[in-house]
Write a structure and sequence with these properties.
The structure is a single chain. By secondary structure, this protein is of the alpha/beta class. Helices cover 49% and strands 16% of the residues. It is built from 12 helices and 11 strands. Strands 1-2-3-4-5-8-10-11 form an 8-stranded parallel beta barrel, surrounded by 10 helices. The longest helix has 24 residues, at 281-304. Residues 145-152 have low confidence and may be disordered.
């Protein structure tokens, strides 16, 4: 199976009341860990690269690594997605470079400007057989090249979301209902606005909704990271049962990045501390890869609910 877009994935997810996990990738070991988990769980996955990942690894490396993974696991539907494209030019470059899905994040712009650029991206991407995710409403927090103060975070207006989709022709929409980027998501109690999500779903029937900033920041991984020399203090994420509920509604795609970073970093730190004599990168990167696999398997089972769906 070649790389695919997300249309069929999302159709099946919507009908089956589950979501597809969208996992951020930065290097070979992360891609390997995700794909090993997807193979064991028999689940479609979205491998997504941010602008930061493209600058770090180089877009051609990411594309070719993902294509290699697809050849290794031909039974697994895989989409390669640009996460948080900041402008038309970046989205165009990814369309031209082999991505099957791109996201233009115009949430920082006024509504009319967001519509204008999103529509431009949609027209170009659709002409090349690529699907488009857009965003309306702003998430608080920090992740990669995205930074929004909590006071500037704006929950998505359902009626505006329906108008936006009609005006742009986008294929999926990321909305703000209480999730947050990064490891420090909440100072108080976690909250997701299910009523808002339900209203979006009624106004946009059968349309795929996306949740960004949906890592749980699992305490045991934070503790392990800190135990072996890390300094991740006061981190708090979105409880997994809250995300699972959203996945049974209109949400078809759930983004997970921070939990993968924490799991991999904790495993590598532990390996380096317990085996200080070892200077072979393959040893500690192998531990990191296994941690990614374990985390992704857990998310497929407990959060997105896509296990054995292909």
């Amino acid at each position: 199976m070649a790389l695919t877009d997300t249309k069929e994935m999302f159709r099946k997810a919507y009908e089956g009341h589950y979501a597809i996990g969208a996992f951020n990738v930065n290097n070979m070991e992360i891609i390997q860990g995700i794909m090993e988990a997807a193979h064991e769980e028999q689940s479609a996955v979205i491998l997504q690269a941010s602008e930061g990942a493209r600058k770090y690894a180089g877009s051609p490396y990411i594309v070719d690594l993902v294509k290699t993974a697809v050849r290794q696991y031909p039974e697994i539907p895989v989409a390669l997605h640009l996460d948080h494209g900041s402008c038309f030019e970046v989205c165009k470059d990814c369309v031209d470079g082999g991505f099957t899905s791109v996201m233009f994040d115009g949430s920082k712009h006024p509504f009319e400007e967001n519509v204008r650029i999103t529509k431009q991206v949609v027209e170009y991407a659709h002409a090349h057989g690529v699907v488009v995710e857009a965003e309306l409403g702003r998430l608080a927090g920090v992740e990669d090249m995205v930074s929004v103060d909590a006071k500037d975070a704006i929950f998505t207006d359902p009626e505006e979301a329906a108008e936006f989709v009609a005006l742009t022709g986008c294929d999926s929409l990321a909305i703000a209902i209480g999730t947050s980027h990064g490891a420090y998501k909440y100072s108080g109690e976690p909250y997701l606005d299910y009523e808002r999500l339900e209203k979006v779903g009624k106004l946009l029937p059968d349309f795929p909704i996306v949740l960004h900033g949906a890592s749980t920041v699992i305490p045991e991984y934070v503790a392990k990271c800190n135990e072996f020399g890390g300094k991740v203090l006061g981190a708090k994420g979105v409880p997994e049962d809250m995300l699972r509920k959203a996945a049974t509604m209109a949400v078809c795609k759930i983004n997970i990045d921070t939990d993968i970073r924490l799991a991999m970093t904790a495993a590598i730190r532990e390996s380096l501390v317990k085996h200080p004599e070892n200077f072979d990168p393959r040893s500690y990167l192998k531990a990191g890869r296994q941690a990614v696999k374990d985390m992704v398997s857990h998310k497929i089972q407990a959060v997105v609910g896509s296990s054995h769906s292909i």
